[in-house]
Amino acid sequence: MTDLTTNTTAKAAEGEAGFGDYIALLKPRVMSLVVFTALVGLLVAPVQVDPMIAFTAILFIALGGGASGALNMWYDADIDAVMRRTARRPVPSGKVTAGEALSLGLWLSAISVAMLGLATNWLAAGILAFTIFFYAVVYTMWLKRATPQNIVIGGAAGAFPPMIGWAAATGTVSVEAVLMFALIFIWTPPHFWALALFMKSDYHEAKVPMLTVTHGRAETRRQILIYTFALVPVALGLGLTSVAGPVYLAAALVLNLIFLKGAVAIWRRAEAQAEADAYAVEKRFFRFSLYYLFLHFGALLADAGLRTWGLA
């Protein structure tokens, strides 16, 4: 990391970083998922939250998610520089120094946790602090470079936001919050492994032990199917809790049938067949996986709205 810090400092000196470069450090696309799932966790909780407190809670949860992104980009800049998908990120491109990314990540971590605790409760703040630690230290600094289970275990970091939102509203963690966590946690491996299948050489060149690198593409396809089968009962089980209703149950049935069909199609493919059509099936599965998660949480929000208006 010392050489990287020196190099990026020299590069950044050639031109001033823009505001957009610092925003990019926070991984805004990932943050959008954090914000949305945390908001759903807060709004479906069986407690009325003052709108200003709710806004403040989501703001600081978002900042905590951004802090995780900045710390990840600080530490992973050497890997990001090798991978085509990430080479233009602010640190490897030299627009922002590694030290600036680290400083921003640490300051946002402290501010977001402290302010969430003051605005809501310290259980929510504690889960947020653990989430930042888990993503930055457990996943980024350890798991990502050490084991093909990096995405499986590390996926917990992205699964905590709805639990944080729920805790911010209620001061507790319940079975509903755990199942929302589990939905994201089990969804994460097939989502990222599908990406790894069509990002053919990135992880290999960066020496990241993704499952495609350590166990091959055939095993990755098999694991996508296994995790998808495990995901279905979790998604449907959430539909049997107090936060779900007819909209969620209908959406979950349709979405999981489509997701399972896609996983089976990936499992049946040979690598030569996948290369021949430019990994079209894998790319479609990956894109649909994004809609899959947003639509599940959107359906929970719709059912909460129906309950509010006395229609369910």
Automatic annotation (TrEMBL):
Catalysed transformations (reactions): heme b + (2E,6E)-farnesyl diphosphate + H2O = Fe(II)-heme o + diphosphate
Enzyme class: transferase
Subcellular location: Cell membrane
Entry similarity comment: Belongs to the UbiA prenyltransferase family. Protoheme IX farnesyltransferase subfamily.
GO molecular function, one term: protoheme IX farnesyltransferase activity
EC code(s) of this entry: 2.5.1.141
Name recorded for this polypeptide: Protoheme IX farnesyltransferase
Topological relation to the membrane, as annotated: Multi-pass membrane protein
TM segment ranges: 30-47, 53-75, 96-116, 122-143, 150-171, 177-198, 224-241, 247-267, 288-306
Pfam families reported in the protein's UniProt record: UbiA
Described function: Converts heme B (protoheme IX) to heme O by substitution of the vinyl group on carbon 2 of heme B porphyrin ring with a hydroxyethyl farnesyl side group.
One term under GO cellular component: plasma membrane
Native organism: Roseicyclus mahoneyensis
GO BP, sorted A to Z: heme O biosynthetic process
Further remark: Carbon 2 of the heme B porphyrin ring is defined according to the Fischer nomenclature.
Keywords: Cell membrane, Heme biosynthesis, Membrane, Transferase, Transmembrane, Transmembrane helix
Pathway noted in the entry: Porphyrin-containing compound metabolism; heme O biosynthesis; heme O from protoheme: step 1/1
Superkingdom of source: Bacteria
Subunit and partners: Interacts with CtaA.
Annotated HAMAP family: CyoE_CtaB (MF_00154)
InterPro entries, sorted: Protohaem_IX_farnesylTrfase, UbiA_prenyltransferase, UbiA_prenylTrfase_CS, UbiA_sf
